[in-house]
Amino acid sequence: MKPIGRSRRTTVLAGLTAAGTLTVALTACSDGGSASDTATSTASAAFTTPAAVPTGPASSDPVTVAPSVTAAAPTSPSAAPAPAVSAPAPGTTVKIGDAVPLPFSSAGSEGAVALTVTSIEKGDPADLASLTLDDDTKGLVPYYIHYKVTNIGATDLAFSNVSHIRGLLANGSRASALMVFGTFAKCSDGSLPGEFTNGKSADFCIPVMSPTTSRVTAVEYWDSPYTLGNGITWK
Question: Residues with Cβ < 8 Å from 61, sequence gap 6 or more?
């Protein structure tokens, strides 16, 4: 896994809120943002409306996948590498709360993590009151994807990003991503902490948007060795 590349297409709006100094831009991007804490916060948000992604028939019996490797203790660079992770097959569906072992690559370092989608939380449009959003967001409801990353390999993954995570609507199409730059108390993601060694875990959140006529029912991870629409799905 590696930090996701962002594809900027169209800037729709930039402005200031009446209360505070939160700056918002609606931009077609591809994934979640970052958060920072200041006494007077400055924030911006980007909203994307992706096209539906064709999906195959859902599995009738979700497959529960448990980590298939024994976590190795942190070692020195000269020590033998940790056992390789056997990643589940593309298209595998697991239950929300199940940990999935995955290979991880960052800045040339090879490691392994267990990725767990812990919950999908329905928000309230009022949660976005501090952000100046475009008319395109009217009629949309925020959802918060909560996930956990655990280092199950021997490599220190400090300050790496685990991305390529998207929400799926009830019909299998992609939920719109809401990218927030700055402080957004309801849901903010970021980098793994420093000294993220074997056995350590960190919790994250990604906000997505759904029409009121639908809801976010599943989450897909699609970074290498997977592809968009054929990754690992939690539901």
Answer: none
Q: Are 144 and 167 in contact (CB under 8 A)?
A: no
Q: Is the pLDDT of residue 12 over 50?
A: no
Rounded to two decimals, what is the model's pTM? 0.67
CATH 1.10.260.40 is held by the domain 11-52+62-73+83-234: no
Per-residue pLDDT of 171-185, as tens digits, reads: 999 999 888 877 788
- The residue extents of the domains of the chain are 11-52+62-73+83-234
Phi-psi region of 2 (alpha: psi -120 to 50; beta: other; left: phi over 0): beta
Q: Which amino acid is at 5?
A: G
Tell me if residue 113 falls in helix, strand or coil. strand
Computed over every residue of the chain, the mean pLDDT equals: 73
Around 98, how many Cα atoms within 13 Å sit in the side-chain half-sphere?
22
Map residue 15 onto helix, strand or coil.
strand
* Nearest Cα to Cα of residue 144 among 212, 192, 47, 210: 210
Edge to edge, what strands does the sheet with 93-94 contain? 93-94, 232-234, 216-221, 165-169
